[in-house]
Structure formats: C-alpha cells, structure tokens
C-alpha cells in the first residue's frame, strides 16, 4: 500500500543499507583449556571438567580475562578448572552483526569439517549471543533486560560429533522448550 511505498522511498533516499557482519580473528597461544569428556556432563575429579566449569571458562576466554590467578590482578583471580591441558594454539573467530539461523547452521557444518585430517582438536565451541537489549528472547516472550540481558546459547562439539547445548537467559525470561 501507500505506507510501504513511502517507507521504501525513505530508505532509498537516505541510503540505509544492511550492515555486513564484522569478522575478527585472533590466535590464543599456550591457552589453558579444561579437559572434557562428551559423555560426562558433571565432570569427574582428575578426569574431566563439568559443563558449568566449561561455561565459566569460556566466558573468561571470550572476555580476555587472564587465567593465571595472580593475586596482584584487580580484575580477576580466576584460573582454569582442573583437570586442564595447555593448547599451543587456539583460534578465536568473532562475527558481530545480525546473523540468521541458516548462517549459524552453515557455521556449525563448517566447524565440524575442522575435525577432518589432521585431527588436532578434541572439541570446539560456537557461542551465539542475542543483543542484551533485544526486545524478544526465546519463544515469543518479551526479553527482560533487568541486570545483564543474558540471552545466549553455546554448542560444544566433540570429535565424535557428540555435542552439548548450553543456554543462558535472564531470570525473568522464558526458557526454550
């Protein structure tokens, strides 16, 4: 109708274009990583770490928090959970923008190809954040910003293609089914 054509002319006149997602790569050297077993969600002392420990560690890595537990640090005395192993090189890729579900599926498929030869990785992760101030969250409910605006999920994919799916939402949000 007339409203649609008015909107189209407004966008054309103001040259509003879809922003391309921004992609950044970084290499993390000598990174302490938790030891994980795909069939052990709770972890076992001296054998593997739990899903909660992994989630906390991942948050520290993605926010570039030091993992060396120095008492002189004003930011964090966090250290990698036990048991852990030092990985010589870990690759971190961050894509920022509006990403559609089909693209996330493609990313997952591409990541699984990383388990082909040479088989260097035991596991990898893909974290998808919603905007903290997004109007909706899971299902069709309004997203309660309140304190942190948590709104994310994380895939942990193992070499044998088992996977964990972790989800985090604010206390006032609906959880997915």
TrEMBL record:
GO terms of molecular function: ribonuclease MRP activity; ribonuclease P activity
Pfam families reported in the protein's UniProt record: Ribonuc_P_40
Superkingdom assignment: Eukaryota
Membrane-crossing residue ranges in chain numbering: none
Any single GO BP term: tRNA 5'-leader removal
Assigned GO CC terms: multimeric ribonuclease P complex; ribonuclease MRP complex
PANTHER family to which the protein is assigned, alphabetical: RIBONUCLEASE P PROTEIN SUBUNIT P40
Protein name: RPP40 protein
Organism: Myiagra hebetior
Gene: Rpp40
């Amino acid at each position: 109708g007339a409203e649609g054509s008015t909107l189209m002319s407004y966008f054309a006149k103001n040259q509003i274009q879809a922003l391309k997602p921004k992609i950044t790569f970084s290499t993390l050297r000598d990174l302490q990583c938790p030891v994980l077993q795909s069939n052990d969600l709770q972890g076992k002392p001296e054998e593997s770490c739990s899903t909660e420990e992994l989630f906390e560690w991942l948050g520290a890595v993605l926010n570039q928090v030091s993992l060396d537990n120095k008492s002189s640090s004003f930011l964090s005395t966090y250290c990698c959970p036990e048991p852990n192993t030092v990985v010589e090189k870990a690759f971190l890729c961050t894509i920022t923008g509006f990403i559609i579900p089909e693209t996330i599926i493609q990313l997952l498929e591409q990541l699984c190809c990383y388990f082909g030869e040479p088989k260097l990785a035991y596991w990898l992760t893909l974290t998808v954040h919603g905007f903290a101030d997004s109007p909706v969250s899971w299902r069709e409910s309004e997203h309660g910003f309140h304190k942190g605006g948590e709104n994310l999920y994380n895939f942990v994919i193992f070499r044998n293609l088992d996977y964990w799916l972790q989800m985090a939402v604010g206390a006032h949000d609906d959880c997915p089914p």
